Amino acid sequence: MNQPSLNLWVIPLLPLIGAAINGLFGRRFKNAVVSTVALLFTAASLVWAVHAVWTLWPGGDRPYIETVATWITAGSFSAPFGFYLDQLSMIMVLVVTGVGFLIHVYSVGYMAHEGGFYRFFTYLNLFMFFMLTLVLANNYLLMFVGWEGVGLASYLLIGFFFQKDSAANAGKKAFIVNRIGDFGFLIGMFLIIQHFGTLNYADVFGKIASGHYTPELGWGLFTAIGLCLLFGATGKSAQVPLYVWLPDAMEGPTPVSALIHAATMVTAGIYMIARSHAIFNLAPHALEIVAIIGCLTAIFAATMGITQTDIKRVLAYSTISQLGYMVLACGVAAYAAGIFHLMTHAFFKALLFLGAGSVIHAVGGEQDMRRMGGLRKKIPITFWVMTAATFAIAGFPPFSGFFSKDEILGAAFHNHFGGPVLWVIGVITAGLTSFYMFRLWFMTFFGEYKPGAIDEGEEAHAASAPAHVAHTAASHSHGHADDEAHGHGHVHESPWIMLAPLVILAVLSVVGGWVGIPQFMSGGQNHFEHFLAPVMESGPPTSTQAAVPVTGNDTISTHAGPPSEENAGQEWLLAGTSVAAAVIGLFFAWLLYFKRRDLPGLIAAKIHGIYLLVLHKYYIDEGYGAIFVKPLLALSTVVFWHGVDQGIIDGLVNGAGSTSKGIGNELRRMQSGNIRSYAAWVAVGGAAVVAIMIWLGVGK
Amino acid sequence: MDTTTFIIVAVIKIAIVVFIMLTGVAYTTWLERKLVGRIQNRWGPTRVGPFGLLQPLADGIKFILKEDMVPDSVHKGLFILAPALALTMSLISIAVIPFGGDITIAGHTTALQISGITHAGGGISDINIGLLIILGVTSIGVYGVALAGWSSNSKYSLLGSLRASAQMISYELALGLSLVGILLLSGTLSLRGIVEAQIIGSEHPWLGFLPHWYIFPQIIGFFIYLLAAFAETNRIPFDLPEAETELVAGYHTEYSSMKFAMFFMAEYVNMFTVACLASLLFFGGWHGPTIPALPLLLQQLLPVLWFAIKVFFFIFLYIWIRGTLPRFRYDQLMAFGWKFLLPLAIANIIVTSFIVAWRG
Amino acid sequence: MIIHQILFIIFGIICVAGAVNLLVQRHPINSALSLVVVMASLALIYLLLGAEFVAAIQVIVYAGAIMVLFVFVIMLLNAGSEERTRGSHIAFFVGVPGVVVLAGTVAWLLIHSGGQLGSIKISASDFGNTQDIAHLLFRDFLLPFEITSVLILIAIMGAVVLGRKES
Amino acid sequence: MVPLSWYLILSAILFSLGVFGFLLKRNIITIFMSIELMLNAVNLSFVAFANYWNTHPAKLASGANVVPLSGHVFVFFVMVVAAAEAAVGLAIIISVFRTRETLNVDQVNLLKL
């Protein structure tokens, strides 16, 4: 179809220009100029993205593929600078640019008093560039560029307060853990290259769609690719076992946490799995593992979230948990539901983080919820938007979270592989989510405002917890006290430049789910799913469907499929159950943190062992430290540092030096200062040259 | 012409030319003494023969008969070699100088030039690079002076020869460059060719009466040549190498009898060479009025007369200047050569080549 | 043209004799004069080859200017006979064999395959006359020619700087 | 009809003698003269080859004709370089003699560690 070029390359390029301007000249600009530049280019990117989506909306040729330039050509393999816009990347690009823009606006207010203002916006714009590259790329390699780039931006922004050791360490941790995941992604790409000879989506999926690859022919290959990609996704999207970096990433400024570590970057893994659904569809075992990992992450992180007292850490674990949901959705082949949840999550989690930022801003840099309370009256707008977000994430209808979560749970229930089990875990997670979110809500906004207070639970915890763990927690809770100290004592509402994005996001959190009201409720079709359907079914449904009887029970269905009329009752039941779980969570939170505030301490004392286990995040960090980091460190120290580096490499270098020195010392005797002896050497050299020329027969 | 005849004719020509040249040299000394005497208001040689005409002969006999002294502690080989080298080199120059057209004696036609060959069908060809050979031989002549001074193992000699070699190298540049204008105009290095170019050009005289001699377009080149030639021949006012008031007698202080005579002759032969060259290059060589009424032999010899007259004019000029001008100081000499003559010669070349190029 | 061969042999022998004399003589002025002899006879060999311009400038530039400069410097420095010093062992034990090998290989090569090269015919045409060289020099080789003039200029300045007495 | 190899042999002999002079002579001026001898030896082969190519027309690898006369031009350039070299070299010799008061190269051996 002939359509005008959309110039998709402009979308990522605009933030890059902004980053370049701010990065190169920002030091000399005033803050107003820096923020104007950053916002202008982000807004332009948003406008361009909307324009592109709008152009394609009424049934344009999708996917729209645009190749700007050849990047790498090696033999038959080539990876272009190409961009790819289909329904999936439309949603992603809108979420990224939209939420990104709002967070940029928010940041102008939030970062107003921080040092390195220009640096912050440079990094933020740089992040936008890479993220947009990631979602718009038309091949895995370019996606990987974005993938690595957002990792870089994330590293830079987590370590934004680099004067602080904990921030710098958190940055390094994020980077290194991500690298481990990237390794999997890379291996996956290599496998794709080896077997498909290309990394372009269109070609890879086209080859799969051509039907040469039936599950039994290539299930080993596809499982391997799928697992490798999944490993990559666990790194980027903070899934078990590589989730450990995300809580620490909260060291970054709060808008960063909102943008990168909640709304956009961490969803890259989900996007990647959804993008590769054609591969996963052919790898049922890989999908099973995806589902298991998602499920595990969801419940695991939810339990850890219960005990956290740092407001941002609660949200961080919540993010991990919600990401687990999305991975679960992918694992049960409900990619559309996963993406749907991704979108709604982007709205309400960004809102939660920004709201938390606003709260932190209001109480002067305090992040420990135990020192908050009763803020409902003092910062009413923040309270209301936080309320909307909390209800959204907890899954109360008609907030957006309800619809997306319900989609996932419904799909999980219908999954062939352990459907009910997954569903039960999902529902429990939903209840836990509701519980800890309302815990946050109650602790922050209700009760008495008690700056400086430490309740009994904390004392008990401090008394019993090992000292170094306490130190970690304390360093986090006081994290921004130094840097974000703008006016202790007086609690005040944030400026409108911060509140405006909050309000917009709040509206989105409320209504964002309505685009995907399931069929059994609305009676019509699920618009969101319908919208995404062409992409998600661009795989070979016929072949997979045909494969079902061959492979038997273990095979997946590509999609849970719209439930039939008879199942509507069951669907209502499932939805009701999840709402009930949310309500139960709300009730317990109200009971423990509003009605009987002494209870949490008692319970913690009662089940002290479990409490400590959860409080210390199941000692996963310590376990990793003992199993991987320390042996690696020891190995590096003994073998690579002392052995290879000092012994072999330094030995070679120093040996080369001392050898040449020795040779030079001997050859120095040749330099007698006697011209005639020099001439003798010249003569010998000339003789040698002539002899060699004759020997080789030059000129014959 | 077969090789034997060629050799015989060449030997005859060489003998005649050398005889005339040496006689000329001898009588130039007489002329010089006479003229300088007159300039200085005295008689000059008068005792030997009428007007002292036999004086050169007497001098020659004296030189030959005097004891040939070789001082101790000289470098003997070079001490003997040096005067011979000087005279040889000056005489070699004569070999390429044409004195006229050709001459027919007893049915044999030959060129009035040692290195010239007359072709059977008429026309004469001489050596293509005659001018270059003269320059090269002149430059070799420096060795005579330089070695003489050095081998004498005497400070005056050494200083004289140092001065001589520096002076001759310096002025050789100006000398060579002053001739480039001529070469540009004539387009040949052959001396005969240059003269013939002037003769042929004279069929259309400048301004209707001036012969087409290169003195007129190359007046600057001519004066540069003249000055450089004076320096090359170590004549006053550039006779610093043998400045008797400073260096006793310069490079030939230690020489006596026939060896001294050889230097003496070399200097006068060089004067002749330079004078011949000046006549050939700037004054049309043997070009002059022809008298068709004369017998063939005389007709053929008439150009030689014109040439001799022109050469005599330059010899006279040499002597005249010797009797008139004082000697330069050494730094003046070097400055004059390097800072005045050389740039002027280069400017002359540039202007000439522009004009030549402009006229196509 | 047996006469050419005879003349070549005569001048060649003079050349080699001069060069040997250059080595044998212990006083630099004798060596310099030997070199002048070599150059003069080379000029005659050039004339035999019909290269009259090259022969002329060989005499004018080499024998008449460069060697005069050498003689001048020898005279100026009043250089005496070569001293007998214990020279460089390397020059004797490495350099001389090296040169012998060099000369040996070249000689072997020339003797072995020199016959294939054929002879030089001295054509009656005026090959190597001044005009042709001038055409080549001022047209095809104009740039190198100008560059060498710059080289000469630099050499002059270098000589002046080196020769100037420290004030 | 002189064989080309005669010229080349003469050239080689002169060149080797030059090298021997360079190696064996002690006086710096003589050494310098040996260099001039080597240059002259090379010039001889240039001129010989110029004549040779004149009577044996040949083509270069690039397909262009060999210009025989360029041998003469090379000789011209060699002479120019030799002249420049002599000017500078002799100036160096003079300044060396001024400071070291010797022309013996074995005694001018400061050029070492």
Which structural traits does this protein have?
heterotetramer, B: 360 residues, mainly alpha, two-stranded antiparallel sheet, 11 helices, 3% strand, C: 2 domains, 6 helices
Concise account of the structure shown:
The complex is a heterotetramer of chains A (about 700), B (about 350), C (about 170) and D (about 110). Chain B has helices at about 5-40, 55-65, 75-95, 130-150, 155-185, 190-200, 220-230, 245, 255-280, 295-325, 330-360; strands at about 100-105, 110, 115-120, 125.
Describe this structure in words.
- The complex is a heterotetramer of chains A (700), B (360), C (167) and D (113).
- With 700 residues, chain A is mostly helical.
- Chain A has a domain at 356-614.
- In chain A, 71% of the residues lie in helices and 3% in strands.
- Chain A has 29 helices and 2 strands.
- In chain A, strands 1-2 form a two-stranded antiparallel sheet.
- In chain B, helix 7 runs antiparallel to helix 11 (330-358).
- In chain B, the strands form 2 sheets. Chain B has a two-stranded antiparallel sheet with strand order 1-2. A two-stranded antiparallel ribbon of chain B has the order 3-4.
- Helices cover 77% and strands 1% of the residues of chain C.
- The termini of chain C are far apart.
- With 113 residues, chain D is mostly helical.
- Chain D has a single domain (4-107), classed as Helix Hairpins, CATH 1.10.287.3510.
- Chain D has 3 helices and 1 strand, in the order E-H-H-H.
- In chain D, helix 1 (4-24) packs antiparallel against helix 2 (28-55) and helix 2 runs antiparallel to helix 3.
- The longest helix of chain D has 31 residues, at 70-100.
- Chains B and C meet through helix 4 and helix 5 of B and helix 2 and helix 3 of C.
| CATH class term of the largest domain in chain C | Mainly Alpha
The low-pLDDT segments of chain D are none
List the secondary-structure elements of chain D in sequence, H or E. EHHH
What's the helix-strand series of chain C?
HHHHEHH
CATH class descriptor of chain D: Mainly Alpha
Overall geometry of chain C? globular
Q: What's the end-to-end separation of chain C, in Å? A: 63 Å
Q: What class do helices, strands and sheet pairing of chain D give?
A: mainly alpha
Please state the CA-atom Rg of chain D, rounded to the nearest Å: 18 Å
**Biggest sheet character of chain D:** none
* Dominant shape of chain D: elongated
Q: Count the helices of chain C. How many?
A: 6
Strand proportion of chain C: under 5%
CATH superfamily of the largest domain in chain C: NADH-ubiquinone/plastoquinone oxidoreductase chain 6, subunit NuoJ
Can you tell me the CATH architecture of chain D? Orthogonal Bundle
Distance between the termini of chain D: 55 Å
The tally of strands of chain C reads: 1
